[in-house]
Write a structure and sequence with these properties.
The protein is of the alpha/beta class. The protein contains 13 helices and 26 strands.
């Protein structure tokens, strides 16, 4: 049985970007809101992208508009089909059932930027590379207008000539080439006549501009590299700043929402669309502060290093902050959406404690997770006064927060498994679990008393021999006798074996790269521990759709990649409580 989290109407988000959109709609400036989510397919999406996804698709949803999923694929050296496919899967997973009705795809093979027709089953995203011919033609128009030129400076010389903030740049020696020469050289660049890095196309703006991004920025560079989407059709590729604004224009985007580092790029965005005959009204760019959680690294380059160096098993390793990793770990899209909505949208740069994300995950799972009995570090208990060979079915609650989730039967027998940490031969003060001569209640079952500790030849505990108060059965007429401790258990003859992966934070430091140190020094050596657990028999039929709370332990889900019939593999999604809050003062 699937227990979905109860749905309650959430208040509509409110922020400065939504205020702008609302004003544009109210004034009639915008007839239909169109946003876009434009990742570069050079890696997998991560938790930081979730904020942008939810913001762009959320705005489109709230204002009856559309949101384009577009691959900003202008750098063939780093982009791959694998990344394109992962991005599509991640976006559809994160917004599925919530805003998928505003997700806009294009006609297969169409390069106009127009949406697919109603009922079109295409799931082909938009690609900036679909517009390469249009972007090229716009570049030719800039050259003809005397607003772009071919430059022969090397990349190192270009950087040196650009100058620095507060210090004007130096014009390129090739800045004043004639229109005819520039057209000829650009055509030869396109034809593949020159090697990589030999020439670039630059906008002709102002080398003394106070904004260094306006100092004759690069528009095109030469790269003799096959492209994942266009193959070998091109050997010149547009720079992001040039392709981004024009792709927005071609697709009719009304509100181009970017993270805050692109604020200094906005004058160039405006200059390009102001100096070309683009359709009107033209798009406008707005910026917000990106999501920066503590205890994670979200640079795609460094995430790739995690994979290549074997720190993790892949992009979808459940310790990774990627959306595919979070999905495999068992985090739900609802929890991620609740988290990013709660963080809000501002222009203030700040970090968000990872505990805030974990709180959203716990809140979501508490409402939806089925309760089950499981023992991760088992020790045998034999109830000596319980009949051999006898089994009885006890009644256990599926989810106490959702009464309609009902109950289930669990088998009870003479031999049980309990957690090793629930027994102490020499107990510390205020230890209310099982100890020699002590009593404890088995949840849903009886009160038991430890009578004997059985050890092997090396002095290791192998078995606890206990007696049960058979009149203390939970829910029975004589169950009112109280003891201070309650522990969980699993019937040994009925237990199902499973591999359980205990995932934790990948980094033990809030800022893994603080003071310029190598992130490798902040890795948590206990980010993954693997145990063979004993589970109640109902978990033999566990499904990927379910989330489970192993009572008194943590939240778990089946591993989507390694679990198979006859081989159960569970991932710990998150602990029941924030154990890191206690460790922080110690650190």
């Amino acid at each position: 049985m699937t227990t979905d989290a109860p749905e309650t109407p959430a208040p509509a988000p409110s922020d400065f970007i939504r205020d702008v959109v609302a004003a544009d709609v109210a004034s009639g400036k915008v007839q239909r809101v169109i946003t876009r989510f434009p990742p570069e397919p050079n890696g997998y999406l991560h938790i930081g992208h979730a904020k942008s996804i939810c913001l762009n698709f959320g705005i489109a949803r709230e204002f009856g508009g559309l949101c384009n999923l577009r691959m900003d694929d202008t750098n063939p050296a780093k982009e791959e089909v694998e990344y394109v496919e992962s991005i599509i899967a991640d976006v559809k997973w994160l917004i599925g059932g919530w805003a998928d009705d505003v997700l806009r795809f294009k006609h297969a093979g169409d390069t106009s930027g127009k949406p697919a027709a109603a009922g079109d089953a295409s799931t082909e995203p938009f690609y900036a590379s679909d517009y390469f011919q249009q972007l090229h033609d716009y570049a030719v128009a800039l050259i003809k207008a005397g607003k772009a030129y071919v430059c022969d400076l090397t990349p190192e010389q270009t950087d040196a000539y650009r100058g620095a903030p507060g210090e004007p740049g130096k014009p390129s020696p090739w800045r004043d080439r004639s229109v005819e020469e520039n057209l000829d050289l650009f055509a030869r660049m396109k034809a593949g006549e020159f090697p990589d890095g030999a020439r670039t196309l630059r906008a002709k703006i102002d080398m003394a501009h106070p904004n260094v991004w306006m100092r004759d920025p690069l528009l095109y560079r030469i790269r003799h590299t096959a492209h994942h989407h266009t193959g070998d059709a091109w050997c010149i590729y547009p720079l992001y700043d040039y392709a981004h604004c024009l792709s927005d224009s071609i697709e009719g985007v009304t509100h181009s929402v970017c993270t805050l580092e692109f604020e200094v790029h906005r004058p160039l965005y405006d200059w390009i669309v102001d100096n070309l005959p683009v359709p009107q009204p033209r798009p406008h760019q707005y910026e917000f502060a990106k999501l920066m959680p503590t205890h994670v690294v979200i640079s795609k380059r460094k995430l790739l290093a995690f994979v290549n160096e074997g720190v993790v098993s892949g992009w979808d390793d459940p310790r990774m902050p990627t959306l595919s990793g979070l999905r495999r770990r068992g985090v739900t899209p609802e929890a991620i959406r609740d988290f990013v909505t709660g963080v809000g949208v501002t222009k203030f740069i700040s970090s968000t404690d990872y505990a805030v994300f974990e709180h959203a995950v716990r809140s979501d799972l508490n409402a939806r997770a089925q309760r089950r009995l499981a023992v991760l570090q088992p020790i045998k208990v034999v109830i000596t006064n319980y009949p051999e060979g006898q089994t009885e079915e006890l009644t256990a609650t599926n989810n106490p927060t959702v009464p309609e989730s009902g109950t289930r039967p669990v088998p009870f027998s003479r031999e049980l498994w309990i957690e090793q940490e629930d027994f102490a031969e020499v107990p510390p003060p205020k230890f209310f679990r099982l100890k020699p001569g002590g009593e404890v209640r088995l949840k849903y079952a009886y009160i038991i008393k430890c009578e004997e500790v059985v050890k092997d030849a090396d002095g290791r505990i192998v078995e606890l021999r206990c007696t049960a108060d058979l009149d203390s059965k939970s829910g029975g007429a004589t169950s009112s006798r109280k003891v201070k401790g309650t522990i969980h258990w699993v019937s040994a003859p009925h237990a199902v074996d499973a591999e359980v992966r205990l995932y934790d934070r990948l980094f033990h430091d809030a800022e893994p790269e603080s003071d310029g140190r190598d992130w490798r020094t902040a890795l948590n050596p206990h980010s993954l521990e693997v145990v063979t657990a004993k589970l109640e028999p109902s978990l033999k039929d566990a499904t990927l759709a379910e989330r489970y709370q192993f009572e008194r332990l943590a939240y778990f889900t089946l591993d989507s990649k390694d679990s198979a019939p006859g081989k159960l593999v569970f991932n710990r999604i998150i602990t029941l409580k924030d154990t890191w809050a206690k460790e922080a003062p110690k650190g």
